[in-house]
Write a structure and sequence with these properties.
This protein is an alpha/beta fold. Helix content is 31%, strand content 23%. α6 links the parallel β13 and β14. Keywords: Signal.
Length: 299
């Protein structure tokens, strides 16, 4: 059997296409992804993804007057949104929301609610914008209006260190290689669709997957890149493992990213937030907030 780190050769080629916005569909047909990574910035070795094409000129929207805009979030999902030391909501989504409000000179409030009640609360007009890690999918577009994505978490492969070292490329033929995934997730479905010759090892949760890899009972983990990055750079991993290849961003499996969510009729607010997000990217505020919450790269 080939060493697992030399057996996966197409990952860098695929990753380069993904970062250019060209992705494989479930039927292996190339398609343009709806949420491209555009003009990424590299800061101290951390790739900061960009979602706003620099060549596009966007007119400043009419502001929404003296209205107080109420943001809703959850406080139990760091680093996206969590309770700060003062008990108030903070995190990447929350800080970005506050920065957008400051740029637009809008009066805003932020209130934490239970994650599974956020969309219902928005529908019931208990708030005006949801700033939380709710993936943009077709069903969401049917109920709400959503800004362009401001965050996207790729799927990544992780392998144990050693052997022949980290590969520079990846092959499609992975017959006999053991890939541990969390059962019932999009990551398991993706491996089944694109790596059918791999031996899938399905476990209950990510912690079990990490332990399986560390014990040598699998050759790879395929999972959420952000969660894997936090594990790899923590004490629990013990420097056992490392990312191999590049990011997987197929929207049909992993969603289009995360954006601010408003009610369908509130499109003027959505347009204002879209404008602010673009300007925060252009003036460096987005990068500053991103690196504060994601100091470890996961792309």
């Amino acid at each position: 059997m080939r060493h697992p780190l030399t057996a996966l050769r197409h990952i860098c080629h695929v990753s380069a296409m993904l970062l250019a916005g060209v992705l494989f569909s479930a039927t292996n047909v190339l398609a343009q992804d709806k949420a491209e990574i555009i003009a990424p910035k590299d800061r101290a070795g951390v790739m900061v993804p960009g979602f706003w094409a620099p060549e596009l000129r966007v007119e400043k929207p009419d502001l929404i007057g003296a209205r107080v805009v109420r943001f809703l979030t959850d406080d139990e999902y760091p680093p996206m949104h969590f309770a700060g030391v003062d008990g108030q909501p903070t995190g990447f989504s929350v800080e970005l929301a506050r920065a957008a409000c400051a740029y637009l000179e809008m009066n805003c409030t932020v209130q934490a609610r239970r994650f599974d009640t956020l969309l219902e609360s928005l529908e019931e007009r208990r708030g005006d914008v949801v700033a939380a890690a709710i993936p943009i999918r077709a069903g969401l577009h049917e109920r709400f209006s959503v800004t362009a994505p401001y965050h996207r978490t790729p799927a990544r492969f992780v392998a144990r260190r050693g052997g022949e070292g980290m590969p520079n490329s990846l092959v499609a033929e992975v017959e006999g290689l053991r890939v541990v995934v969390v059962a019932g997730t999009a990551h398991e479905a993706y491996i089944a669709a694109f790596f059918p010759k791999a031996e899938r090892v399905a476990v209950a949760d990510l912690a079990a997957a990490q332990d399986t890899l560390k014990r040598g009972e699998a050759d790879f983990i395929f999972a959420d890149g952000l969660s894997l990055a936090m594990w790899l750079n923590g004490a629990a991993a013990g420097d056992c493992c490392a990312f191999v290849g590049g990011p997987y961003l197929e929207s049909r499996f992993f969603g289009e990213g995360v954006g601010f969510i408003v009610r369908e009729e509130d499109r003027s607010l959505r347009d204002a937030l879209d404008y602010a997000l673009r300007k925060l990217w252009e003036n460096g505020t987005y990068t500053e907030i991103y690196l504060r919450h994601f100091p470890v790269g996961f792309y």
